[in-house]
Specification:
- By secondary structure, the chain is mostly helical.
- The chain contains seven helices and no strands.
- It has helices at about 1-40, 45-55, 60, 70-100, 110-135, 135-165, 170-205.
- Helix 1 (about 1-40) packs across helix 6, helix 4 runs antiparallel to helix 7 and helix 5 (about 110-135) packs parallel to helix 7 (about 170-205).
- It is globular, with a radius of gyration of 18 Å.
- The relative contact order is 0.15.
Length: about 200
Amino acid sequence: MKALIQKDVYVLWKQMKIFLLVMLVIMVGNGSFGSVFVVVWCSMMPYTALAYDERCKWDQMAAMMPYSPRDLVLSKYVLGWLCAGAASAVVLAVQAIIRALHLSVATGTPLAVLMSFCASASVLAITLPVMIWFSVERGRMVMFLVIFLVCGAAGALGTVTISVDQTAGGIQSLFGFFMLILPVAAVALTAVSIPLSMRLYTARR
């Protein structure tokens, strides 16, 4: 599986370098929503890798190699998690630098970054089976719809969390409950999504 992930990273490296610049612009210019969007957006990199695979008929070559459907499918999930984790680390580093320099730039909070990572794992779990079954081109609209809904909801909640008064115990409890549910939902969706993707990939072959 390590070789499969390396293959995708090599293919995506040029785009990743451009993403670093775009990430900084979006993150600094859009506050909490920008931080959420950057993490979720980077978790979508496996779909670009899938598009390249489809274009060069990678599935046909992979069938002649000692890779199981489990390895081929799981490598895309791991790639998404790694990209989202790397984006989260970049966001946290930028937030730390801005706080250390006392700059008046809104980039969100570490809590929003945690929410973003969980949201990206949930988006990946929902949309990757669709991409595998329908192909990237036909499944792209579903992906964009899910990303828009998740980013909008998570970004709004992250912004509201910052502005909530510390005395509003009821509202804070509600957000605390949501913070607890989101990681659980991400784990549960992933646990269902991975075996589903494997079955769909095997059936498509």
